[in-house]
Amino acid sequence: MSISLLLLCLSVIGALAFVLGRARAAVLSGGRSSSMHSRLGYHGAYAAIWAVLPALALVCVWLIVSPEIIDRLVVKSFPEEVKSLPPAELNLSYGMVRSIARGMRLLGSGELAEVAGGTADLQLLLAQKGVPLAVRPTGYMIDAADRYNDMREVSRIVMSVAALVISLLCAAYGLRVIAPRFRARNRVEQVILGALIVASSIAVLTTVGIVVSMLSEAARFFSVVPAGEFFFGTVWDPRFAAAGAQTSGTFGLIPLLAGTIYIGFVAMLFAVPIGLFAAIYMAEYASARVRAIAKPMLEVLAGIPTIVYGFFALVTVGPFLRDLSADIDGLLTGSYTSFIEAQSVLTAGFVMGVMLIPYVSSLSDDIIMAVPRSLRDGSLGLGATRSETVKRVLLPAALPGIVGALLMTASRAIGETMIVVLAAGVAARMQFDPFEPMTTVTVKIVNQLTGDLEFTSPQTLVAFALGITLFCLTLCLNVYALCIVRRYREQYE
Length: 493
Fold this sequence. Notes:
Oligomer: single chain
Strand order of the largest sheet: 1-2
Shape: flat
Helix content: over 70%
Strand content: under 5%
Distance between the termini: 60 Å
Number of helices: 18
Largest sheet: 2 strands, antiparallel
Number of strands: 2
Order of helices and strands: HHHHHHHHHEEHHHHHHHHH
Structural class: mainly alpha
């Protein structure tokens, strides 16, 4: 039985348990629901939880443990000369066995009979099914693949039967314990609370897992390259090489960090004033009809893929700024030489700023609208104009939320990749001319993880050091914004 079919059966059993539990509670109440400690739906939900959760737990544990057991049993069936091979070669042989097993599940009964009779080439058949093999499979590999498929099928059948039996037994238990004074509501709410805790823990543990994985790989990088050379170096030259080649490079973070901050700063210069002014207009000045049209149209910008913005920068904005600078230079000097390159910090910052406008505008608009109406009415009642009310009352009161919106915008700008690749180039340069190209940390992370490189080489491991540096930079922004939020919240509460 497939996993999807098994889950469907468990869902049907759970639904039946809910109906039966509710019906049993209705019978026990004698038509008076007030005689039951909990509402009828809670009793049905309690029976459904018992019918589904233990069986799901068994399935999850089985799917985690059974592959490991099957792998060990299959390896034990290998000939002694194969089991005595080095671990790397043994793993390679077992990988071949699993590929053969996967391909054999795609073959029909006639093709399997031909393979068993020796009249068909298994390697050719599997290649036709989309499972290419590097070498021709030997006899022990085919036998091990058959054994692997058989054990896998037996494991799936036993798991399905065990899950269904446990589901039925637990459903019967859940129905049996239903009684007039049974606290079904408390038990169901405890399960819901546990589910909420698990959901929140998954989010936290995911963050911890990301940080730990980056730290472990970054530590391997810093064991090869000194941390001082990385954090304070001003030259980025990783010197790509083919796999197996022993080369060293220069991994200076400063040019990448400067490009990240510089391009993000230019983008914020465009996005923050326009987005904030648009939010103030829509919240305080625009009519309901204009707001209903303008806000959705502005938020459409947030749904455009970043690669589209990158093409827009590459095809339209970059050449426009380059030609405009040539015209300006021609009017001033007569040489018509462009001083703004098509790929530059200005191009990337401008296009990224356009992309960030809806983030600033939408979030700031919601924050300003959340300011209590009494503050507006009080300011206007004291004789303040609408602009004075916005400047002296609404913006200070909404400042903590606006700081959070700007923080989210800054984080979005720091993590952008495609716009920078197409609009600012990939050259790691240490300069402060906004008309010249630069690059960012995220672009180099992508560059270092693509290509024919060993995963243990410094040229690849440096991506994790860059990633943890970017994480720390974002964390510092969050802490700084939290300090500002707490300071002004105390002042205006």
